[in-house]
């Protein structure tokens, strides 16, 4: 495990160094960070642990699941049949148990929560971190959320759905909890599911508290859940569903022990892949960012071209040839006509975007939000942009065409070497044990398994 962590850290260091040296200067030259849709990757982005988001109705077992994973209570946890968790809680590692208020979290550059400042003070008062000295949390961060109340307003004075969507976008895994005893799949719960369906590659469903229902009831509940997910998510691929009672206590129905133990194993197996998935997601996010920044740069470059074109026309109109060079140096005339020229540019922005997308094969997802871009351009002085610099463009091309592919290839190569070392270590241990694997807890057994589980079906 230590070698895998070292491997991940080395890839992250290489990725961050290449970005800072070759691509960030290109971004800054086109004022990308001055636009509201731009969130520059900081050190917290590269160093962040995989994040797990827990969503579900109230009393569906989210907080209990956190306790089940880390094998202890976290500071401020409240568990009960009524709505108990009324805050967003980031459960993370700390040497000593402590609670950190949301207002302190968002100004900490070492954490990844700074963008949450945009949701305002009402949200920050309902956001906190719970630090726990747990080995599990050395590798992950868990986000426990307030339970969703059906057909009611969860916002409490802030954009609840916007907060959920931000966490869903940033998370590496999303667990959607459904209580087998109250299958109320409507109202606000359905809106949340429809909102996060674009992250279905990270989504997992947990059908919780099933050990107290009969087998016939479980079949009906499972069928109703699948029908609802098919309608709400418009699933193109099968989403993983975990069935069980994840609370760390003895099972009520011993006949289903094998099923529940196997489901526990599936969850741990799924979570064990998160470090590698998180690293791949960061690399993929940087690849997408290069496309988005390039599209932004094309739009800004066209605006600068239009600005200079109209300025030159105005100079030639007044025929002040001697005065022309002085004005060009001081940019006085550009300042006078800047607003009018921007209005011409903004009116044409949709057509300009369509032309650039067609010419350079950009997709609409890679295009910036034009409404936000127009608002920002009315206040941003484009004359602050640095002049054309061939070195910046060359460094950008090296980062996109050489550095990123080389880092991705190195990632796959080193991952293969580590997997081979792990296999050889297991093989060596098993040879010492006369070539036999120790008996597994999830060994197939036909006795007492419901639904024909582990019978080769």
Automatic annotation (TrEMBL):
GO molecular function: GTP binding
Listed Pfam families: Dynamin_N (PF00350)
SUPFAM superfamilies: P-loop containing nucleoside triphosphate hydrolases
GO CC, any one term: cytoplasm
Annotated ranges, domain Dynamin-type G: 46-280
Record's keyword annotation contains Cell cycle: no
Gene Ontology biological process: endocytosis; endosomal transport
UniProt KW keywords: Membrane, Transmembrane, Transmembrane helix
Segments traversing the membrane: 299-318
Protein name: Dynamin-type G domain-containing protein
Source organism per UniProt: Euroglyphus maynei (Mayne's house dust mite)
């Amino acid at each position: 495990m230590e070698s895998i962590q070292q491997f991940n850290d080395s890839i992250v260091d290489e990725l961050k160094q290449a970005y800072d040296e070759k691509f960030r200067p290109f971004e800054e030259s086109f004022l990308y960070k001055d636009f509201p849709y731009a969130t520059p990757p900081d050190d917290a982005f590269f160093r962040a642990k995989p994040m797990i988001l827990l969503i579900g109705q109230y009393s569906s077992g989210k907080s209990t699941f956190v306790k089940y994973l880390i094998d202890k209570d976290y500071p401020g946890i409240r568990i009960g049949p009524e709505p108990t968790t009324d805050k967003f809680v980031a459960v993370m590692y700390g040497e000593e148990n402590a609670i950190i208020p949301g207002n302190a979290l968002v100004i900490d550059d070492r954490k990844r929560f700074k963008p949450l400042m945009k949701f305002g003070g009402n949200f920050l008062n309902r956001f906190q971190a719970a630090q726990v000295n747990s080995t599990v949390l050395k590798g992950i961060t868990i986000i426990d959320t307030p339970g969703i109340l059906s057909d009611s307003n969860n916002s409490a004075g802030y954009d609840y759905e916007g907060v959920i969507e931000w966490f869903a976008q940033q998370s590496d895994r999303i667990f959607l909890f459904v209580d087998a005893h109250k299958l109320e799949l409507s109202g606000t719960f359905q809106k949340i599911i429809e909102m996060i369906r674009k992250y279905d590659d990270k989504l997992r469903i947990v059908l919780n508290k099933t050990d107290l229902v009969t087998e016939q009831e479980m079949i009906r509940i499972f069928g109703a859940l699948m029908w609802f997910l098919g309608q709400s998510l418009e699933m193109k691929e099968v989403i993983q569903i975990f069935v069980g009672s994840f609370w760390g206590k003895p099972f009520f129905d011993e006949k289903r022990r094998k099923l529940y133990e196997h489901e526990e194993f599936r969850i741990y197996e799924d979570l064990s892949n998160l470090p590698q998935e998180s690293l791949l997601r960061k690399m993929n996010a940087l690849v997408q960012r290069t496309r988005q920044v390039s599209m932004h740069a094309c739009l800004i470059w066209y605006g600068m071209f239009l600005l200079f074109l109209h300025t030159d026309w105005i100079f030639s109109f007044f025929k002040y040839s001697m005065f022309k060079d002085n004005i060009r140096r001081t940019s006085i005339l550009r300042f006078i006509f800047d607003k009018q020229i921007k209005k011409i540019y903004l009116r044409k922005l949709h057509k300009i975007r369509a032309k650039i997308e067609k010419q350079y094969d950009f997709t609409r997802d890679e295009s910036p939000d034009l409404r936000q871009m127009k608002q920002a351009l009315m206040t941003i002085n484009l004359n602050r942009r640095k002049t054309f610099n061939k070195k910046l463009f060359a460094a950008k091309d090296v980062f996109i065409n050489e550095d990123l592919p080389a880092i991705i290839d190195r990632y796959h190569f080193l991952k293969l070497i580590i997997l081979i070392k792990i296999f050889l270590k297991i093989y060596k241990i098993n040879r010492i044990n006369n070539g036999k694997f120790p008996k597994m807890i999830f060994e197939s057994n036909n006795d007492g398994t419901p639904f024909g589980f582990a019978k080769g079906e």
